[in-house]
């Protein structure tokens, strides 16, 4: 009897610690959990308003630096990207956890292909640029950490990093703003609803 009680008690403790520590895995369009270090396309859920996420310069006259933008055409999937969670042991990409998001592509620009939030003075908005190095969670890399959250039956990206206890980052949803005809990923009140397809 004592043993049975003890077992039940440890099960309760163990079970509840799992429930509180681990959020749900993010699922791709075939219902499989997203894996870390595996390439996916990020595609829009709403039809007729642009395609997958890719890299492009901010206008048609410069080549660099690069920003995260949405393809103009719905049929274009954009570039494959992969996720590297703050807890590299994870293996599975989970909702609401800090992630580096990295396009698996080579560019002529020197900045690299990691998502990083930057403030654009002329737009007076935070936009997602390419740049920085993966890993090293903390104050110095605060702008490189994004999260995926559930939005109805699909997902959205948010910026609200928790890799630094004493930092007070701006927090918000990532959506699309159109500047010079380019569909740029930025902090907005209108999140881009996305789904993930294995590349
Ligand atoms: C990046 O792409 C290359 C070439 O397609 C592939 O071999 C490699 O596994 C990819 N790396 C990651 C981390 O997805
Ligand atoms: C670049 O885009 C602007 C505005 O969209 C346009 O007026 C201009 O002609 C374009 N320049 C080139 C070189 O295509």
TrEMBL record:
Belongs to the protease inhibitor I3 (leguminous Kunitz-type inhibitor) family. SMART domains: STI. Residues 1-19 form the signal peptide. This is Uncharacterized protein. Keywords: Disulfide bond, Signal. Pfam families: Kunitz_legume. It comes from Hibiscus sabdariffa. The keyword Membrane does not apply.
């Amino acid at each position: 009897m004592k043993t049975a009680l003890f077992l039940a008690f440890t099960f309760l403790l163990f079970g509840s610690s799992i429930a509180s520590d681990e959020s749900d895995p993010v699922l791709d369009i075939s219902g499989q959990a997203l894996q870390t270090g595996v390439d996916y396309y990020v595609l829009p859920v709403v039809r007729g308003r642009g395609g997958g996420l890719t890299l492009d310069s901010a206008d048609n006259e410069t080549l660099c630096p690069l920003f995260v933008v949405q393809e103009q055409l719905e049929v274009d999937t954009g570039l494959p990207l992969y996720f590297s969670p703050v807890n590299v042991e994870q293996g599975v990409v989970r909702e609401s956890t800090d992630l580096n998001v990295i396009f698996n592509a080579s560019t002529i620009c020197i900045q690299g292909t990691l998502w990083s939030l930057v403030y654009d003075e002329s737009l007076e908005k935070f936009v997602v640029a390419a740049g920085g190095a993966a890993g090293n969670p903390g104050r110095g890399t605060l702008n490189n950490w994004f999260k995926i959250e559930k939005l109805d039956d699909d997902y959205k990206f948010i910026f609200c990093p928790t890799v630094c206890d004493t930092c007070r980052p701006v927090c918000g949803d990532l959506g699309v703003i159109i500047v010079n005809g380019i569909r740029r990923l930025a902090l907005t009140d209108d999140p881009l609803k996305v789904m993930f397809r294995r590349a």
